[in-house]
Amino acid sequence: MKIAFLGDTAFIGKYYPMDGAMEDIKKRFCHIKDLLSDCDYVVANIETAITKKEVTNEFKTLALRTDPKCVEILSYLGVNIACIANNHIYDYGVKAVEEAVAVLNEAGIQCIGLDNQSFLAEKDGDKAWLGAWCCYTTNAWHYSAAGKSGRLNTLSFENLKKHILQAKQMGAYPVILAHWGEENTHYPRYDHIQLARKILTEDEALIVGHHPHVLQGVGGYLHGKAYFSIGNFCFDDCASKKYGIYLKQTTENLKGAVCFLELHSGNASSYIKTFRDNGREIVIDDSILEEVKKYSETLTQIEDLEVYERIRRNEQNAAKTIRLGKRDVKWLLHHLNLTSVMAVVQRRKNQQRYNILRKNFKSVASDNRKKVILYVGNFDKPMKSAAGKRVYGNKLLLEQCGYKVKMIGKYAGKNSDTTVDLDFSYFPDYGMRHTKKYIQWLDEYQEFMNVDPICIIRYGSPALAWFDKLLQNYAGEKNIPVIADVVDWLNIDGGSLIFKIIKSFDTWLEKGVLNYGADGLIVISSYLKQVYRNKNILIIPPLVEKYETAFSESNETVKLVYAGNPFRKGIKVENPHKIKDRLDLTVEAIEQVSHTVKLSFDIYGITAEEYILAFPQHKDLIDLSGSIRFMGKRPMEEVQVAVHEADYTILLRERNRATMAGFPTKVVESISQGTPVITTRTSDLEVYITEGKQGFFVDINDFDQLCSQLKVILSIDAQERCQMKKYCQKDRRFLPENYKSETAEFLKCYIKN
After folding, report:
1. 365-539: CATH homologous superfamily?
2. In the chain, where the domains are located
3. 586-631: per-residue pLDDT in tens?
4. CA distance 92 to 19
5. Reported pTM
6. Nearest-CA neighbor of 386 among 73, 17, 670?
7. CATH class of 558-734
8. How far apart are CA 503 and CA 460, in angstroms?
9. Per-residue pLDDT tens for 291-303?
10. In CATH terms, is domain 2-334 a member of 2.30.30.40?
11. Rounded to whole angstroms, how far apart are CA atoms 23 and 118?
12. What is the rounded distance in angstroms from the CA atom of residue 116 to the CA atom of residue 80?
């Protein structure tokens, strides 16, 4: 038995037979007719009302219909099954649907998609059980409702499972026709991929999709295939008497595919033949198969969620731009009516209905789902920021404790190449106004990635602190513990008054209120442990994956390095006491000491121009200095080499809440690169730095004393500096394995079994 499936079919525009032009229309389809000639059944998705009625009674901007005489074209093609579960079949009301069903039945065409009706196709002992469903995401009207007839079949996991069970009882192969997805994008929604994956992982079936009006990829799963969209069969420009051309056909809309299912003695196989409309006729074009292959390959690489979503969203935005370009003042005035209001209400209602159904799309749990931890928040990849390094270090620690970690951070520009294998995705870049969307996306991510987390660790917020509250509510509903990773309590410096007010409130909300609502805390310093002393708390300093093993000799000229972003770029620093890194004080002191000690000081991360803009009073000092160089922003690998080859890194900070609460990643990176640190007594540094071994402490409260201390430190001979570099290499206290036992014990409080 051979069954063919046609995509979105609407006999409108150039596909509508004008007076006396029926034979011309048939000629347009002659190649497809030949292709279908050996099929026992042909199924078409009829995406218009079939009625003589000319006035719609639906609250829709765009209503599609075709004349009943066009059914003749379906008969010409050999269509004997019509799928009418779509978002346009009710465009002209209930009576028009009844008329369509009657007209189709009279032509010998069986309808499926209403009132849970399916069709049993039989030939030579082979059977196929065909059913059709429409998804709420298409914003169709007249869905199934208890006690009511003439309603669309609703796409849900439960309904599809019932269909498959019925097929098994009849000894038939289940076929699912799904009207789903989003228009004019070649990439299916995550949740629909998840639904297909779940269905075809559990049961044998074929899934054929409609609605996007363009071709999408083919997903091959354990027990079958999902053809997410086979594109248009015939679907011209869509026009409205009131608004004119509403949807314009593109080159992608002119491509489509016929999907074939062959059953022989119970064995099923499926494939597609692609075609295009060249303006005169529909011709077979096998070259389009390469495009479908590309979309299908993207589906196989779906684990890179961030990349996939970005591709899909770019297509959606492009299509949206074209659509919005047609919306002028005239369009707006036309839409200030009850029709538009009711359409919006219907869309919101459908989305709410769909959100309930979507919860059931999760795939079958696997063994490794039991120990997955989600690490979410305001961080980028490790090679791009200290935040990313912090999270990645903790990821390594958690993996050594036996857990799988998925990191979900905030996109901050182009991805950096890295040699590290990362389980890393990005929240969509919605912006602060769309904090709720981060939670929605997180829910979709869990479903799509087959993740059922045992706990969520949050590192700050990807937007406003309100995200923390929404995350706690979301996790609470799912009975998932939330652990906050707290690494700072920053002062607010620079920006407008409004920015300072918003940022100050946001910081207070997160640090002073919401962190107390977390189930547990991982903190970076003992200061923070004291702040949140009533909580179950684990102290973890910044961690590194490895220590530099190659030894670097001391330099004849004492080489100092600073690497980082010491202030907000582009503005003058009004109050140096509010910035963490006192680079201004460092520059002044180094310049003075350079008159008596032979040294060089390289500053990575900022340019001289950026520094002078922040501290204009130092312009002459920088211009005249022969010892201080500003290296600007350089690749991380280059900075690491510079730190490794330096005699010291230098980091001067005042003692205040911000510097005591945090822990400078720069210190950890320096020691792990085999380079001692000149710094101040902030955070927990005294626990990890022994004077004369991993570095030195200086006092910055008295400038003259600071300069004197630096002269003594920088005058140490090369042999002693080499010995200090060896001490750093032997330290190894910032490796994850050193915190494995206490971390495992800490997590026992939150993770059962």
Report:
1. Glycogen Phosphorylase B; (3.40.50.2000)
2. 2-334, 365-539, 558-734
3. 999 999 999 999 999 999 999 999 999 999 999 999 998 889 999 9
4. 23
5. 0.61
6. 670
7. alpha beta
8. 13
9. 999 898 877 655 5
10. no
11. 33
12. 19
